[in-house]
């Protein structure tokens, strides 16, 4: 992990993540997932820029370097991830829990493809699956407008 000189960092261990984010899910539900996704987008854009990412084949090393995942396999619009930090920390769950990672993946995918995309997790190790499965799809024009309107 490359640290910038003029930025402050907080290191969250798995236990702190589990307690903090677990509590946020309890009180904020979907809003918590959306906030984590947006935070992941910010992180992903920084990572794409810092690593000069050119292809999705390079994302495994980027995510491993950040301790966000151990293994990544990209097949067109499907991304399979083993060892997600988030999923591991938020076990057990009935729903996918890797919203931050989904945001990071969306930003990395967008940086490589030049397309605005949304990434949704369909299977998660937090649910007892062997890996997390993410589906990438291009944003429709009205979804892009919605994103802009939410920022304003
Ligand atoms: Zn997951």
Would you kindly provide a written description of the structure presented here, covering whatever features stand out?
The chain is α+β, with helices and mostly antiparallel strands and 152 residues long. The chain has a single domain (14-151), classed as 2-Layer Sandwich (Muramoyl-pentapeptide Carboxypeptidase, domain 2), CATH 3.30.1380. It has helices spanning 14-28, 30-51, 59-65, 85-89, 99-113, 141-151; strands at 71-75, 78-82, 117-123, 132-138. A 4-stranded antiparallel sheet has the order 1-2-4-3, covered by helices on one side. Strand 1 (71-75) and strand 2 (78-82) form a beta hairpin. The N and C termini lie far apart (32 Å). The chain binds zinc ion (ZN). Residues 84, 87, 96-98, 121, 124-126, 132 line the site of zinc ion (ZN).
The average pLDDT value, as a whole number, equals 91
Number of domains: 1
SSE order, one letter for each helix or strand: HHHEEHHEEH
Number of helices: 6
Classification by helices and strands: alpha+beta
Tell me what portion of residues adopts beta-strand conformation: 15-25%
Bound molecules: zinc ion
Overall CATH architecture: 2-Layer Sandwich
CATH superfamily: Trafficking protein particle complex subunit 3
Portion in helices: 40-55%
CATH class: Alpha Beta
Biggest β-sheet: count, sense, barrel?
4 strands, antiparallel
Quaternary structure of the protein: single chain
Task: State the low-pLDDT regions, or none.
Answer: none
N- to C-terminal separation?
A: 32 Å
Shape: globular
Q: Find the count of extended strands (DSSP E, 2+ residues).
A: 4
């Amino acid at each position: 992990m490359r640290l910038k000189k003029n930025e402050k960092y907080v290191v969250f261990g798995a236990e702190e993540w589990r307690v903090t984010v677990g509590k946020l899910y309890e009180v904020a539900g979907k809003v918590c997932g959306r906030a984590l996704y947006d935070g992941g987008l910010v992180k992903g854009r920084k990572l794409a820029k810092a690593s000069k990412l050119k292809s999705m084949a390079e994302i495994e090393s980027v995510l491993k370097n950040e301790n966000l995942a151990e293994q990544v396999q990209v097949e067109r619009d499907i991304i399979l991830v083993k060892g997600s930090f988030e999923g591991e920390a938020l076990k057990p769950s009935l729903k996918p829990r890797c919203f931050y990672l989904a945001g990071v993946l969306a930003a990395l995918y967008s940086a490589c493809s030049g397309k605005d995309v949304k990434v949704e997790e369909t299977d998660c190790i937090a649910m007892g699956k062997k890996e997390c499965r993410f589906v990438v799809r291009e944003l429709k024009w009205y979804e892009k407008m919605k994103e802009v309107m939410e920022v304003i």
